[in-house]
Amino acid sequence: GRVSWSRxxxxxxxxxxxxxxxxxxxxxxxxxxxxxxxxxxQTARRQRRRGxxxxxxxLLDAVAPMLDEVPARIRARLAAELRAExxxxxxxxxxxxxxxxALYTLDRAPPDDEVxxxxxxxxxxxxxxxxxxxxxxxxxxxxPPLDHPELEVWRQGCRVQAARLQGPxxxxxxxxxxxxxxxGDRHRSxxxxxxxxxxxxxxxxxxxxxxxxxxxxxxxxxxxRVASTVGAASAWLEALELDQAERWAQRAARQAHRLRHPTFxxxxxxxxxxxxxxxxxxxxxxPSLVTAAAALKPYLGALFATTxxxxxxxxxxxxxxxxxxAQAAPWFAQAS
Length: 336
Prior knowledge:
Elements: E1 3-6, E2 9-12, H1 14-22, H2 33-49, H3 53-63, H4 72-93, H5 96-107, H6 113-130, H7 133-142, H8 149-164, H9 168-182, H10 186-202, H11 206-218, H12 222-238, H13 242-259, H14 262-279, H15 287-296, H16 298-314, H17 318-335
Antiparallel strand pairs: 1-2
């Protein structure tokens, strides 16, 4: 069911493509299960940091059964590395269904303190993604610290998001409490700065948010840096600093293109076009961009359609404006 023909075109399910990409790198013919698993974890880590989360998850799921063939002296260590990387990939997807699948995987692992801590973290992330403040706050208090640096950053980030569900004052108190934790570590500092930037953005402090996102981007790499670059462009756009918004959006588009990250490239492209519209020099409407963006995420298609609808309105073509607005409405509804 992953591959089918449609007239003269071969249709391949995206998950199937990601699974194929994900399983090419490890040397399956080496005859060394431990080496295959180790190589797979390293490959998945690179994929995750480039934003190829489906590929990373598919690869780890594919090699997990091989742990039974790994020598006992290294099995526990490799299993822990695989679980940590699989959890990071699931958290990075930021979707409740991805958290559910990660919990299912952890539930099948032999119980120990490490598995319990990972389970508590993923349960917290799931509650945050569902917008459940009571569960998130309780789980944030119970989730224990993790020795893995990246997972510990995720735990603290989820604590910030749980506080956010209680309101801006609670979020600010949590950020203040974590300032010392972030100090002196480049990665932690960059993440804390981006959390603070998001807090400022929601409060309408757009210049402060933009400059904070710029600082965060300087301390990040890979897809994480693209996220902060997009954040800076968005904040500059709302601050009506349109030259800055366009400059940072173009930078984000280049970064996303190099990483082959279509969602961030689409968002950056929309920011460039929206900055041009607000400057009074809108780009020509482009139906192909609306279609391509909607194929990634309906909400993105709605953004492109709305900007193009406004452009047609300025040109006095109310029929095309209304058609695009009608096209965008159900896409926005899907995101709500």
